[in-house]
Amino acid sequence: MMKISVLASTLAGFTAVAQPVSATAGCDPISKYSTKWFLENTKPEWRFTSFDSTALFYTQGLSQRARQFARQATNNKITIWEVWPCENYFIKMTRQNPLYCIMSDFEQEMIYFENMSRAFAMKASRLASVMHRDIENPPMSSIWGRVELPVLQADNNPWGTVDYITAIDAEDVQRRKLEWVRYFSANLYENADSILQKILHGRDEQVPSSLGKRVEGEACPMITIDDNHPLW
Question: I need a surface site. Which of 55, 96, 99, 202 has the fewest CB within 10 A?
């Protein structure tokens, strides 16, 4: 009888070990990653700082182009890809990654990056720039038009108010236009040329001659994404 009891206990142990591990056991819920969470979990250097005239946005298909321009421009432009620790952009597609389930579900992935984008836009102040393939007819169906632009146009962001949005041509970065202005003052009309040049190009801005050069010492690798990614 004792042998049977021992055998039963042993088999029970094997049965417990053999149970499949849930694929979602280590996954974070999408509810964790609110806009508030993103604002509170930036890299330490951005935790209590707004992006004063340095935030660079972009529209569909220009992720890599915008990142390269931002990292080489001497006026220190910042894209959404520089603000959070590398792991928040989901670098490794493994089940051990807590973002695995979110990034495996298109709707949850979109919510995640929309909340990240909203937080990025909320931290912009004074002037923001956006890169388009066509600065005369920019696409408005992407995160830029649906999420970021309305946030930039709001007047109650805790990190500061954006007064101007400038558009940068992705094919010719010297070609720019004033896409949006909060107030049309008399001063703007009377000194239009000089003021517009300062707004569009900055006083000491130098545009990189080659956008293909990699900058050494980047905090995160230049992640390659496809046209299904929300931040493409």
Answer: 96
pLDDT tens sequence across 163-219: 999 999 999 998 999 999 998 755 554 444 555 555 666 644 544 444 444 344 455
Q: Check: CB of residue 176 under 8 Å from CB of residue 135.
A: yes
**CA distances from residue 194 to 168, 188, 201 in whole angstroms, order as listed:** 18, 9, 11
Report whether 99 contacts 24 (CB < 8 A). no
Q: Is residue 33 exposed (0-12), middle (13-18) or buried (19+ Cβ within 10 Å)?
A: buried
Radius of gyration for the alpha carbons in the chain, expressed in angstroms and rounded: 23
Of 153, 185, 144, whose CA–CA distance to 57 is shortest?
144
- DSSP H helices, 89-177, are 100-103, 106-122, 143, 149-153
CB 112 within 8 A of CB 33: yes
Q: How far apart are the first and last CA of the chain?
A: 67
Cβ atoms within 10 A of the Cβ of 139, count?
13
Gap between the Cα atoms of 87 and 99, Å rounded: 9
- Show the CA angle centred on residue 35, arms to residues 63 and 78, nearest 5°: 35
Between β-strands 162-169 and 176-181, what pairing exists: parallel, antiparallel or unpaired?
A: antiparallel
Residues 6+ apart with CB under 8 A from 96: 26
Q: Check: CB of residue 176 under 8 Å from CB of residue 167.
A: yes
